[in-house]
Design brief:
The chain has helices at 7-14, 18-25, 30-43, 45-48, 98-106, and strands at 52-53, 66-70, 72-73, 88-92, 113-117, 124-127, 135-139, 146-149. By secondary structure, it is an alpha/beta fold. The protein folds into two domains: 1-49, no CATH class; 51-153. Helix 1 (7-14) crosses helix 3 (30-43).
Length: 153
């Protein structure tokens, strides 16, 4: 049985202090966290025009094959990223620096597709040791000054 998140409840949740919100999110599955974040973003007009912080819990979803993020802010993971099954990474309107993206991709040994569209904060992007990478797309990255790719990837 699938529950729908009531937008009024989502607004109450968004008013919680970050440490309490992260504690609550730690009890949810990755799928439930993604549903809640999506609900917060789309159920309340205030979230449509702003970035939300992606919970750290998302960085440790071992069985996720596709990660698609839109309009969020990524902060450096607190440990090693363990996306051992991730095959597709799609970032759109994401705010992140080069180190965050490097940390994120480093844990993705099976990654086949990386798509980065209209993201902020990237200057020197490194795609190294990605032997399974088949497709890399980057659009509207006006701040990106340098892209380094491993020729073996």
């Amino acid at each position: 049985m699938e529950r729908k998140t009531n937008p009024a409840n989502a607004d109450m949740i968004s008013a919680l202090p970050a440490p309490i919100l992260h504690h609550i999110l730690s009890f949810l599955s990755i799928e439930q966290v993604v549903q809640l974040v999506y609900s917060l973003k789309h159920g309340n007009r205030n979230y449509r025009d702003s970035y939300y912080n992606m919970p750290q819990l998302v960085f440790y979803a071992k069985s996720m094959a596709l990660l698609e993020l839109d309009s969020c802010k990524l902060e450096s993971p607190r440990g090693n990223v363990t996306f051992s099954c991730l095959r597709e990474l799609r970032l759109r309107h994401v705010c992140a620096n080069d180190q965050v993206i490097k940390d994120l991709i480093t844990g993705c040994l099976l990654i086949e597709l990386i798509s980065i569209i209209s993201c902020q904060g990237l200057k020197h992007l490194e795609l190294l040791n990605l032997g399974k990478l088949k497709e890399f797309k980057v659009y509207d990255e006006y701040g990106l000054e340098q892209l380094e790719c491993d020729p073996q990837g």
